[in-house]
Q: What sequence folds into this?
C-alpha cells in the first residue's frame, strides 16, 4: 500500500475514534502531556476506551477521567539493558576476573543500567542483590528512575506496572500527534476548566523517541577541555565573578530563603531551603543532615551562615542535586531531574588537595573532578583565606559531590556563597531552545526562520529533522530560552569585563560599555561581546564606575539633578578593585600622593561639550567652552559624563513589551521584531539590533 494511502487510512481511523468519543458522551478528555525531552502540551486523548494498564497479574482499562497521573518510566536502550543484565549475572561468578570486568561494564553503563539494577535487587543471589543496591546508591537512583510506570488514580490508588499502548494519539493545537511510549514522560489530568485545544485537520504527525546517544557521541560531548584548576574566581569572590559567563546564576548564602526576606536560623536544616530554585542539598550519609553553620566567618559575599553536614569533625560529605524548578514534591523530597552548566562555592580554610568536587551528568558519568589549590595564602591574623571551588561543563551537571580527599583530616567541610547556573531539565538537550506559552504549554526544539511576521517558528525535538516547524504567535509567547550550547560559542575575549550604567534621553537605562564616541555616533558594548551603534544625541548620562549593588538589591537608578549641567565629574578616588588604577593607600594618616590620586580635589567641568571617547585608548576629548579649544584627558579619571537634553532625540512613549536577559546578567527592555535561526531581532532605542543566541539567556514578556 502506498505511503499516501497509509496516511489516509490512519486519518480515517482517527475520525472514527473521535466519532466514537462523541457518541459516548461529548468532548475527548483534556490531558497535560509531557515528553521525555521536556515539552509540555495541552492535549485531548483520542483513544475513547481509556488507558490499558497492567499491574502484576491484573490488567484493566481505566477511563481517562479516572487517570489522575501516569508517569512513564524511561524506556531503556535494549542493547544497553541486555549488557547490564548479563554483567549483573556475572557479578555472582566464581572467577574474580569475570566479576571485575562485569563491575567495570556496569560502571561504564552508568544510569543506563538502573532498570536492570532494580530487577537485580530481588534476585536470590545475596551478593548480586547487595552489589545492585550499592550501585544504585552510587548512581543516585530515585523514584524517577523506577523502571515501572506509575499510575495514580482519582480514587487515591497508585499502581506500578506498564502502560499498554503502541502509541498515544493526542490532539494538539498544531495537529494530531502519534506519540510512541518511548517519547512520553507523563500524562496527567489538565487543570479544572481547561478547554480542549482546537485540532486542525490533517494526517497524524508522527513523533519519535529521543535517539539514544552512542558512546562515541557522549564522549565527544564530555570532552570540553577540563581544567586542572578550579574556576579562578579568587579568594573573596566578588570581582572575579564578573569575568565569568554567569547569566541567570543564583547565589545561595544560607542566610535567607529565596524570597530574600525570611531569615534562616542558625542550626536550621537547609537541605530543601532552595528547592524552588531546583537546588537540593543532601548529606552523603542519609542519617546526617545539612544545617546552617557559623563556626567561622567566610570572607565571601554574604558574610553570614555557611552550610555544613551536621557530623563530627572530619566526617560528613555533601551532595548537591538539581531538579526542575517547580517539580519538587515535599512528600518524596525529590523532583524531576534537572541540570546546570556551572557550580561554584566558597570553602572554609583547608590544606591543599584536601577537599574535592566531582560533577556527574544525568547518566551518572563523571564529568570533572577538581581539588582545592590553597597553597598557604595568608590574610590578616595569619589564617588561610577562603577559596572558591567551581566546575563548568558543556553538558548539564545533574549531581555534585563535595568530599574530603583526606578522611583523617579534622577540618569541617563547610560551604558558603553557593553559585549555580540556571537549572534546566536534565533531559533537555543543550542544542535545543525552549518556548513557554501563556497557557502553560512549553515546547523544546529548534528555532528556525519564520515565514510569518510576529511568529516564532519552532520544530519540537520530538519531531524528525524533515518536519515543518510549528508556528507560535508572539501574543502567546511568554519566555524563550535559546539553546544553552550557543553559550560555548562566545570567545572569552569578547566578554565585557566592566559595564557602565547608561541613561538615555528617553529615560531608559541599562548596563553597557561605552566603547567609542566619534562623529555623532556612540558604540556600546553589551555583555557577551555584542556591539551596537546609536546616535550620540540619545545619550543623557553615563556612570563610568558604577558601584555594585548589595546582593539581592537592584542598581540605583541613574538620574540627572535639577542643577546638574552638561560636562564631566571626576572620580574622588581610585578603587582597589580597579585593575587599571593604582592602589589606594592603606594608612588614612599618610599624606596622599598626587600621582596616585590625580583627580583628587578637581572641580566638576561644567558646561563642557563631550566630543570624543575611546575606551581602548583610555582617552576622553572635551571642549570646556573657555576659548582655549578642546583637550584630551585620561578616561579613567572621570566618573560621570553628562550631555545636554536633546529636543530632536526620539521620545520613548510606548512601554517596551519584552525584557532581554543576557548571559552575563545584564537585562534591558526592548520590542521583539523576529526570532531567526541563531539570533533575535529587536527594536532598541529606535534602532534595529540583532543579538546572537550565544549572548542571550532568555527573552521574557514584561508583566504589567
A:
Amino acid at each position: 500500500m502506498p505511503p499516501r494511502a497509509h496516511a489516509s487510512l490512519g486519518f480515517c481511523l482517527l475520525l472514527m475514534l473521535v466519532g466514537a468519543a462523541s457518541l459516548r458522551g461529548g468532548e475527548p478528555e483534556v490531558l497535560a502531556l509531557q515528553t521525555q525531552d521536556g515539552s509540555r502540551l495541552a492535549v485531548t486523548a483520542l483513544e475513547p476506551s481509556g488507558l490499558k494498564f497492567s499491574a502484576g497479574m491484573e490488567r484493566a482499562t481505566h477511563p481517562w477521567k479516572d487517570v489522575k497521573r501516569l508517569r512513564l518510566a524511561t524506556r531503556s536502550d535494549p542493547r544497553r539493558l541486555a549488557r547490564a543484565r548479563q554483567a549483573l549475572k556475572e557479578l555472582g561468578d566464581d572467577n574474580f576476573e569475570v566479576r571485575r570486568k562485569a563491575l567495570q561494564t556496569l560502571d561504564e553503563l552508568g544510569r543506563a543500567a538502573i532498570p536492570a539494577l532494580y530487577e537485580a535487587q530481588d534476585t536470590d543471589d545475596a551478593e548480586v542483590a547487595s552489589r545492585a543496591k550499592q550501585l544504585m546508591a552510587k548512581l543516585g537512583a530515585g523514584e524517577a528512575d523506577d523502571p515501572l510506570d506509575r499510575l495514580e488514580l482519582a480514587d487515591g490508588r497508585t499502581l506500578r506496572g506498564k502502560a499498554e499502548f503502541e502509541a498515544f494519539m493526542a490532539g494538539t493545537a498544531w495537529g494530531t500527534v502519534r506519540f510512541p511510549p518511548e517519547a512520553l514522560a507523563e500524562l496527567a489530568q489538565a487543570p479544572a476548566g481547561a478547554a480542549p485545544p482546537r485540532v486542525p485537520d490533517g494526517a497524524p504527525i508522527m513523533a519519535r523517541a529521543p535517539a539514544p546517544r552512542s558512546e562515541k557521541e557522549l564522549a565527544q560531548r564530555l570532552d570540553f577541555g577540563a581544567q586542572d584548576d578550579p574556576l579562578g574566581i579568587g579568594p573573596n569572590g566578588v570581582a572575579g565573578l564578573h569575568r565569568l559567563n554567569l547569566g541567570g546564576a543564583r547565589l545561595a548564602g544560607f542566610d535567607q530563603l529565596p524570597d530574600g526576606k525570611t531569615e534562616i536560623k542558625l542550626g536550621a536544616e537547609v537541605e530543601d531551603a532552595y528547592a524552588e530554585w531546583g537546588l537540593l542539598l543532601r548529606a552523603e550519609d542519609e542519617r546526617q543532615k545539612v544545617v546552617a553553620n557559623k563556626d567561622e566567618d567566610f570572607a565571601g559575599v554574604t558574610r553570614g551562615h555557611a552550610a555544613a553536614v551536621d557530623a563530627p569533625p572530619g566526617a560528613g560529605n555533601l551532595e548537591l542535586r538539581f531538579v526542575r524548578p517547580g517539580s519538587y514534591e515535599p512528600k518524596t523530597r525529590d523532583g524531576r531531574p534537572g541540570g546546570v552548566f556551572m557550580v561554584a562555592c566558597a570553602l572554609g580554610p583547608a590544606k591543599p588537595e584536601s577537599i574535592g568536587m566531582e560533577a556527574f551528568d544525568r547518566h551518572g558519568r563523571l564529568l570533572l573532578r577538581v581539588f582545592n589549590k590553597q597553597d598557604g595564602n595568608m590574610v590578616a591574623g595569619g589564617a588561610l583565606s577562603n577559596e572558591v571551588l567551581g566546575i563548568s561543563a558543556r553538558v548539564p551537571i545533574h549531581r555534585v559531590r563535595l568530599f574530603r580527599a583526606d578522611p583523617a583530616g579534622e577540618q569541617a567541610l563547610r560551604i558558603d556563597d553557593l553559585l549555580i547556573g540556571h537549572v534546566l531539565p536534565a533531559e533537555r538537550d543543550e542544542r535545543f531552545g525552549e518556548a513557554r506559552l501563556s497557557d502553560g504549554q512549553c515546547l523544546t526544539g529548534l528555532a528556525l526562520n519564520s515565514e510569518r511576521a510576529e511568529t516564532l517558528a519552532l520544530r519540537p525535538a520530538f519531531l524528525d529533522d524533515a518536519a515543518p516547524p510549528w508556528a507560535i504567535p508572539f501574543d502567546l509567547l511568554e519566555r524563550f530560552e535559546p539553546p544553552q550550547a550557543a553559550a560555548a560559542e562566545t570567545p572569552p575575549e569578547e566578554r565585557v569585563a566592566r559595564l557602565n550604567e547608561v541613561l538615555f534621553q528617553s529615560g531608559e537605562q541599562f548596563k553597557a560599555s561605552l566603547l567609542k564616541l566619534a562623529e555623532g555616533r556612540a558604540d556600546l558594548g553589551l555583555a557577551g561581546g555584542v556591539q551596537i551603534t546609536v546616535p550620540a544625541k540619545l545619550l543623557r548620562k553615563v556612570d563610568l564606575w558604577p558601584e555594585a549593588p548589595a546582593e539581592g538589591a537592584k542598581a540605583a537608578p541613574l538620574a540627572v539633578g535639577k542643577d546638574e549641567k552638561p560636562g564631566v565629574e571626576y572620580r574622588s578616588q581610585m578603587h582597589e578593585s580597579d585593575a587599571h588604577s593604582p592602589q589606594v593607600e592603606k594608612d588614612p594618616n599618610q599624606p596622599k600622593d598626587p600621582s596616585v590620586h590625580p583627580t583628587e580635589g578637581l572641580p566638576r567641568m561644567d558646561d563642557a561639550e563631550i566630543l570624543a571617547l575611546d575606551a581602548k585608548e583610555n582617552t576622553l576629548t572635551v571642549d570646556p567652552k573657555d576659548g582655549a579649544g578642546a583637550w584630551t584627558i585620561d578616561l579613567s579619571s572621570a566618573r560621570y559624563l553628562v550631555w545636554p537634553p536633546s529636543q530632536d532625540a526620539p521620545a520613548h512613549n510606548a512601554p517596551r513589551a519584552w525584557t532581554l536577559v543576557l548571559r552575563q546578567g545584564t537585562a534591558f527592555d526592548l520590542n521583539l521584531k523576529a526570532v531567526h535561526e541563531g539570533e533575535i531581532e529587536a527594536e532598541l532605542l529606535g534602532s534595529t539590533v540583532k543579538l546572537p543566541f550565544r549572548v542571550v539567556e532568555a527573552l521574557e514578556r514584561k508583566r504589567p
Notes: The radius of gyration is 29 Å. The CA atoms of residues 570 and 638 lie 4 Å apart.
